[in-house]
Amino acid sequence: MLKNNLSRYFPAVLSGTALVFAFPTFNISMLAWICIVPFLISLYRMDGYTAFRAGLFFGLPYFFGTQSWIYYSVNHYGGISLLPSLLIVLLLSLYESLYTALFGFLFAKAVKRTDLPLTIIAAPLWGSLEYIRGYLFSGFPWSLLGYTQYKSLPIIQISDITGVYGVSFLIILVNASLADLYLLKVRQKEKPLFPKWKTLASSAVTVMVIAATLFYGIHKLSSVGTETGDTRNVRISIIQGSIEQDRKWNPAYQRNVFNTYKRLTTEALKEGPDMVVWPETALPFYFGMDNDRTEELTEFVKKSGVPLLTGTVMVKTRPVNKDPDVNSNNGYTLSNSAVLIDRAGNPTYFYDKIHLVPFGEYVPLKNTLFFLDKLVEGIGDYTPGKNYAKGNLSWGKFGTIICYEAIFPGLVRKFFRHGGNLIVNITNDAWFGRTNGPYQHFSMSIFRAVENRKPLVRAANTGISGFIDAKGRVLRTTGLFKETYITEDILINDDTSFYTRYGDVFSFLNIIFTVLFFVKLSNKAGKTKKYQGGVT
């Protein structure tokens, strides 16, 4: 029995494990196009519930392997020991594996009841579930298949129409086509009248879709940034303070932290930037509440004559007649924010982070889950922002996304529906340590640039900071945990992509197709049962 179970689920485990190596930091991106084939083939001979379990066995190594960095955050900064930290990652992976388990269940059911090619079943189904995973229960669209291709520029240009989900669709399409060809003789043997031409036609269509995607990508790589004719260069300096997480808010180090950013900025100013960007929560004080340090900062910017965008914790409301101890979080309302200080030293733009990190920046359903606290130490619970505000300078407009927000395609596009020129991502990836987390986080930013056809500037406290153009090309980056600054001229434009205008139309079509397909399949099965039961 044990031997049978091992052999039955081995293809799923093999596929899920191999898929990990397609993501950063291994970056064997070609694996993604073939490694899911064993899993799909194994589902063919399974009943629905066995396929559900196979989906779990596929998802567990896939998600645990790509998200193992989470243990570092909760272990090092949440005060949770190693084994419970790993258990938290395992539980999250188990939850995410429910999506691949549901995929296995529905896929196996569909294959038994239709002679359609596997591509028609697998690609829309996977695309639908991947999209839903990005929104349900706050959403966590990490480890999306499409992210394995962040270096494959001709392939990912299609994201300006479909979002990253379209690249995931293509990957499953190819895997399903290969599985289809492998199973062709098996299906013909079991069903002598099985229409071979459908499988061959589906494979031909897959080849044409990939060819069309590559053609589109090559065309876009040669044309993006020139379509409106209104392009211009802007010079940006990124300051990477590389401040250790346990020192950021330690009163003994606050002066040193502040001076580090001022010193690096003074050096960067020699390169003549149009704007300087500091990372998420770079300020070791509460902007606007600590009057002395706030004035020191605005005077520094005024003297430099160059606008500064920086991350800061803002005190939105404060209790009356209370001891001003913000860290106690007793009656204070805080936000994880960005502030732009213009060349005259005036704060002219504020943005409050909209999509907060559950169990990191707030506890969801706090009244119900009263027994849970945040998994990492912080200042307090943050209040989410509501406005997709853009900063405005003489050279153009920019939207600011803070840390975790960069993994949500639908959120980022909302900044640019009515125009804009630049995406600025400020983040603090010190939480990830020297794991695969910072590399994966950076790779997702490449897709946000391509989806919206906007260059992206990424300022990270400990790295990876960098510049990405509107085609997804990485122009320059920093190393991890290095105190440094970088300056780059980037080309901004007034283009608006299809994805920016209309959002996840492709994903919605996937969902509609999938629902209609399985409704029809269910009705067909119901009629067959009635017929077999003698009902006319």
From TrEMBL:
Which residues does the UniProt record annotate as the domain CN hydrolase?
239-492
The protein depicted here goes by the name Apolipoprotein N-acyltransferase / Copper homeostasis protein CutE
The molecular function GO annotations come to:
N-acyltransferase activity
Its GO CC terms? plasma membrane
Q: Does the keyword Transferase apply?
A: yes
- Location(s), subcellular: Cell membrane
Output the GO biological process annotations, alphabetical, semicolon-separated.
lipoprotein biosynthetic process
- Membrane topology type, per the record? Multi-pass membrane protein
> TM spans, by residue?
20-44, 56-74, 86-108, 120-144, 164-185, 197-218, 502-521
Keywords recorded for this protein, A-Z: Acyltransferase, Cell membrane, Lipoprotein, Membrane, Transferase, Transmembrane, Transmembrane helix
Keyword match Ribosomal protein = no
